[in-house]
Specification:
Distance between the termini: 95 Å
Shape: elongated
Largest sheet: 5 strands, antiparallel
Number of strands: 9
Strand content: 25-35%
Number of helices: 3
Strand order of the largest sheet: 5-4-7-8-9
Structural class: alpha+beta
CATH topology of one domain: minor pseudopilin epsh fold
CATH class of one domain: Alpha Beta
């Protein structure tokens, strides 16, 4: 009787073990790729800040009340603050009540920071907290927010225009004069429709 040669195959356990190792290595590689793409994080952060700034401006229009736009360059946040409603006549205000109510706070991801805020006729703000008044019509002073990646040359510049309800994002750093060359000193911001 001829002897049949027996072909050797992989067992199910061996195949599952190899697949588990491949999956684990792919998970590790994917997590490393996220940390290797700060430019993608910068793009995402500028988009998020852009939409939040637009939402803050529209919220003041809807409420018809002025608000304060607060950039905290040290903490990497941007928020809108509303004054609390005035107490009814004859009622004393609550001394424990907060002076301002924070709404719509945006925190930048790790590694992304606000490098500076540019305004007309004022030195660039690079540290601390900057407060700007939003009118009840959503208008605010013309300014530019420059976001950057820590220790990398990548930046995004957001132009917040008092005459335009949207916020524009540029992929490079631009000076205030380049961004707002169309503004003249005597023009006042128009209300947002």
């Amino acid at each position: 009787m001829p002897r049949r040669s027996r072909s050797r195959a992989f067992s199910l356990v061996e195949i599952l073990l190899v697949l588990a190792l491949i999956g684990l290595s792919l998970m590790i590689a994917a997590s490393k790729m996220d940390t290797l793409s700060p430019e993608r994080a910068l793009e995402s952060a500028s988009g998020t800040l852009r939409s939040q700034l637009e939402e803050m401006r529209h919220a003041t229009v809807l409420q018809g009340e002025p608000a304060t736009l607060v950039y905290d360059l040290s903490a990497g946040t941007c928020r809108m603050e509303l004054a609390p409603p005035a107490p009814e006549p004859g009622v004393l205000p609550d001394p424990q009540a907060p002076a301002m109510e924070s709404l719509l706070e945006t925190e930048l991801p790790e590694g992304i920071r606000i490098l500076k805020i540019q305004r007309r006729g004022v030195p660039d703000t690079t540290t601390g907290e900057l407060r700007m008044r939003l009118t009840g019509s959503g208008a605010c002073p013309a300014h530019a927010v420059v976001l950057g990646v820590t220790e990398k040359p990548w930046v995004r510049t957001l132009r917040v225009d008092p005459l335009f309800p949207g916020v524009e994002v540029f992929e490079e750093s631009r000076t205030f004069d380049q961004l707002f060359s169309f503004l003249q000193d005597d023009r006042q911001p128009a209300p947002i429709p």
